[in-house]
Design goal:
single chain, about 250 residues, alpha+beta, eight-stranded mixed β-sheet, 12 helices, about 15% strand, elongated
Length: about 250
C-alpha cells in the first residue's frame, strides 16, 4: 500500500476517479498505484499526480527521488513553474499547514494569498498561537516606487489597492501575538515566501503582475545555497523595514 499517496489524495479530497481524470489514466491504474507499494507510474503521470495533489514526487514515490539524487548546487530546486498561477494552491496550503516555526510572506502586496487560501487569517492566527513566527513584508501603498510600478503594470486593480486589501486583512489579526508586518521597498521585483525549510520565490518580470512571474519551489539542503541566499535577503529587508502599525516593535529577525 502506498500510504503517502493515499493520504495525499485524502488531504486533497480527490477520489480515484478524479485523480485518474487529472492524470489521463484509467481508474484501475490509480487503484494499482495505491495498493501496490512498489509500483511507480510513468514520469508524466507522476508529475500530473503531484500537480493535482500539491505534493512532491519525493513524498509520493521516494524511490524515484533516490534514483535521481541531485548533488550539484541545483539540488535545492524542488519544482519550477513558468507562472506563479501554475503553482497549485494545494501546495501553498500544504506548506502553510506544515510550517511550525517560520512563516514569512515577503510579496510586495501578498494580495493573492487572501483570495486563494480559504480562511487564511484564521489559519495565521492558529499558527501564531501554536508558536509559529509570522512576518509580512509589504510595499508602502503611497510610495513613489509603488506608483512607478503601477504605471509599469498598467492594470485596473492597482498595486496600491492590492496592498491596502492586505493591510486591511492584517488589521483584523494584528492583536494575535506572533504576527508582525513591516513596510519595505527592497522586494519590489522579487517575492520570497518562506515556510520553515521550504520557500517559494517569484522574480517579477517587467510589465507583468505577480501571477505571471516564473516561480521556484526551493527546499534547504545546504549552507549558503540558493535557500540561504534568499533567506538572508529577506532578513536584511526585515531589519531595515518600518513597522506597519504605529507603536509596533521590531521582532527578532
Amino acid at each position: 500500500m502506498n500510504e503517502a499517496l493515499r493520504r495525499a489524495m485524502a488531504d486533497a479530497r480527490l477520489t480515484d476517479h478524479q485523480l485518474a481524470e487529472r492524470c489521463g489514466v484509467d481508474i484501475k491504474t490509480v487503484g494499482r498505484w495505491i495498493t501496490q507499494a512498489g509500483r511507480v507510474p510513468r514520469a508524466r503521470h507522476r508529475w500530473a499526480a503531484c500537480e493535482a495533489l500539491g505534493e512532491d514526487e519525493a513524498v509520493l514515490w521516494p524511490e524515484t527521488a533516490r534514483k535521481a539524487v541531485k548533488l550539484g548546487p541545483d539540488r535545492e530546486i524542488v519544482s519550477v513553474y513558468p507562472y506563479r498561477s501554475g503553482c497549485p494552491a494545494s501546495l501553498w496550503r500544504s506548506l502553510i499547514t506544515n510550517a511550525t516555526e517560520d512563516l514569512t510572506f515577503a510579496g510586495y502586496t501578498n494580495y493573492f494569498l487572501w483570495l486563494e487560501q480559504a480562511r487564511f487569517g484564521t489559519a495565521l492566527r492558529r499558527k501564531a498561537a501554536q508558536g509559529c513566527r509570522i512576518r509580512f513584508l509589504v510595499g508602502d501603498p503611497d510610495s513613489d516606487l509603488t506608483r512607478a510600478r503601477e504605471r509599469d503594470e498598467a492594470v485596473p486593480l492597482t498595486l496600491s489597492t492590492r496592498i491596502r486589501v492586505t493591510l486591511a486583512e492584517l488589521e483584523k489579526i494584528k492583536a494575535q501575538p506572533g504576527i508582525e508586518a513591516r513596510f519595505s521597498g527592497g522586494h519590489a521585483h522579487l517575492s520570497v515566501f518562506r515556510f520553515d525549510d521550504d520557500m517559494i520565490v517569484t522574480p517579477l518580470l517587467t510589465h507583468r503582475v505577480g501571477h505571471d512571474a516564473p516561480t521556484l519551489h526551493l527546499r534547504r539542503r545546504q549552507n549558503d545555497g540558493l535557500f540561504d541566499r534568499f533567506a538572508s535577503h529577506v532578513v536584511e529587508l526585515w531589519e531595515s523595514g518600518s513597522p506597519v502599525w504605529q507603536g509596533g516593535t521590531h521582532g527578532q529577525a
